[in-house]
Amino acid sequence: MRKVVLHAPGDVRVEDVERPTIVEPTDAVIRLAATCICGSDLWPYRGADEVPQPQPMGHEYCGVVEEIGADVRTLEVGQFVVGSFFASDGTCEICLSGYQTGCVHRQPGAPTGAQAEYARIPLADGTLVATPGQPDADLIPSLLAASDVLGTGWFGSVAAEAGPGKTVAVVGDGAVGLCAVLAARQLGAERVILFSRHADRQALGREFGATDIVEERGEEGVAKVKEMTGGLGAHSVVEAVGTHESMHQAIGSTRAGGHVGFVGVLHDVAITGDDIFTTHVHLHGGPAPVRRFLPDLIRLIWDRTIDPGKVFDLTLPIEQAAEGYRAMDERRATKVLLTL
Ligand SMILES: [Zn+2]
């Protein structure tokens, strides 16, 4: 089968390798319907994250169950399933409380890599959610988005306590930020402010439910949001970038007593006591427990209430994965779908 492997920063290759097989009796092997490149894949691609190399890439997946281990109870071969980037048992206290990414048995969701034709998924019963049937082809991008960017944006909005009557601001106009906009509106937010400087992302943000766009960043962006909210700041702010600047833009844009949901993978972020003591801002985030939201997200996609697959603005065959990485690295694409 074909699989994307990172050999060194900037060097991704598509290789012919053996299909993964069942290792643990709780595993499943799935045949992916499509795969994609994540913004977080750019960190190791740029050499900003040290990872062992060669490294199989990709952690977003949906597809058909090809094989199950002897202890898998709830899934059948042939079912179409969606999972997320961490595998979880679904039975420990942390999973039952809705924090599957903190599962006591958590492990990578697709340890063999998900930018591939097949992937081994550990803890299949806890990790995978079956769709009501075989999806129409046009639903595949949205189901794939549910696997990470939609689930992550959704958690960002939930962690920020987006809801009816609330003004929500979203820092980050990548796929996760755009999905957070969609989530905030679905959760009933009255006003959704998207920070964005890119015309195409602003347009999709508006389609997903943004009511206002702010092009300013940093202190200027904070001042703009304050000005738009009677000097108070937003009730809820989603941080979907992960840099020091974006985190402080998020904290600064939040009103006293408000909530920041942070889901960008943090890199070199420093938060002082003053940043949180004097502001009365709640901070909650981390790796999104996508699994908590998957049943609801699958239903919304299945019923065609939401179409998060629109975040994919470039589709390439997996053989051109290297071009997909370049396009995302150079910001020529928001998110790249790889067909198999
Ligand atoms: Zn667990």
UniProtKB/TrEMBL annotation:
The Alcohol dehydrogenase-like N-terminal domain is annotated at: 25-123
Q: Which cofactor does it need?
A: Zn(2+)
Please verify whether the record's keywords include Protein transport.
no
Instruction: Note the coiled coil stretches, chain numbering.
Output: none
- What InterPro entries does this protein map onto? ADH-like_C, ADH-like_N, ADH_Zn_CS, D-isomer_DH_CS1, GroES-like_sf, NAD(P)-bd_dom_sf
Keywords associated with the record: Metal-binding, Oxidoreductase, Zinc
Pfam (any one): ADH_zinc_N
Taxonomic superkingdom = Bacteria
- What residue stretches are annotated with the Alcohol dehydrogenase-like C-terminal domain? 175-284
**The family this protein is said to belong to:** Belongs to the zinc-containing alcohol dehydrogenase family.
What protein name does the entry list? Zinc-dependent alcohol dehydrogenase family protein
Native organism: Kineococcus endophyticus
